[in-house]
Amino acid sequence: MSRKKIVAGNWKMNKTPEEAEKLVSELIPMVQGSDVDVVVCTPYTSLWAAANILKGTDIALGAQNMHFADSGAYTGEVSADMLLALGVKYVIIGHSERRQYFGETDDTVNKKILKALEKGLIPIVCCGESLEQRELGVTGELVRQQIKIAFRGVTAEQAKGVVIAYEPIWAIGTGKTATAQQANEVCAIIRGVIGELYGASVAEQIRIQYGGSMNAGNAAELMSQPDIDGGLIGGASLKAEDFTKIVKYRG
Ligand code: PGA
Fold first, then answer.
1. Residues 152-180: pLDDT tens digits?
2. Which atom of ligand 1 approaches the CA of 232 most closely?
3. Which of 95, 97, 104, 129 is catalytic?
4. Phi, psi of 247 (to 5 degrees)
5. In this structure, are residues 211 and 186 in contact, taking their beta carbons and an 8 Å threshold?
6. How far is the centre of ligand 1, averaged over its atoms, from the C-alpha of 232 (Å)?
7. Which numbered atom of ligand 1 lies nearest the CA of 214?
8. 234 lies in which domain range?
9. Domain with 139 in it: what CATH number?
10. 236 C-alpha vs ligand 1 centroid, how far in Å?
């Protein structure tokens, strides 16, 4: 069974609304006709501006985080309903930068995934090891744990539609990419855990991206690996030409 690839740009804390409008306007004609799902995850403040331009196009809109509560006294937070009202379809959950700087844990990741799914948003669930953890040889165990906790309470029907992003922390924004073989190996472990949790059919259907210094030069090799179904792109998603080359990695 062949899974449709999915390439998502994670803009992180970059681009004002005006700059976001410019970048998505450039991207729309450039990525047209690609055979992958294309997503841009802008900062909250640019979602509205981007949504108005992306309406009716092939590019879907994503957010980079959300809160797990419906509403209430959570200063500075944004709910799933608020994102949905702007036309957001995907939401990145548990990015390593949120785990590292903002106290995100496997437990809050789980709560956010459950809320996103309840509301009809597609979570892009991030997992991955630090350099120290890789050197200690615990990468497999670590991602197994991250995935098992993240998916607690998620049904098989829901799990099929979730996107997982394997992002080795040591490869994010460092220019150090995991080799295609290293990346595929961990993506295969992740698919294996999904198989244990939900059976072979869900494991075959779920899409697993690689993220961490993916760029126009290495995208083709990474994305042609059997267990890699796309990319979560940081730095290279900020330039229309670079991002398009990744989307059109088949040339
Ligand atoms: P990078 O970031 O492509 O700049 O390494 C990827 C990510 O953090 O999602």
1. 999 999 999 999 999 999 999 998 888 99
2. 9
3. 95
4. -60, -40
5. no
6. 7
7. 3
8. 6-247
9. 3.20.20.70
10. 8
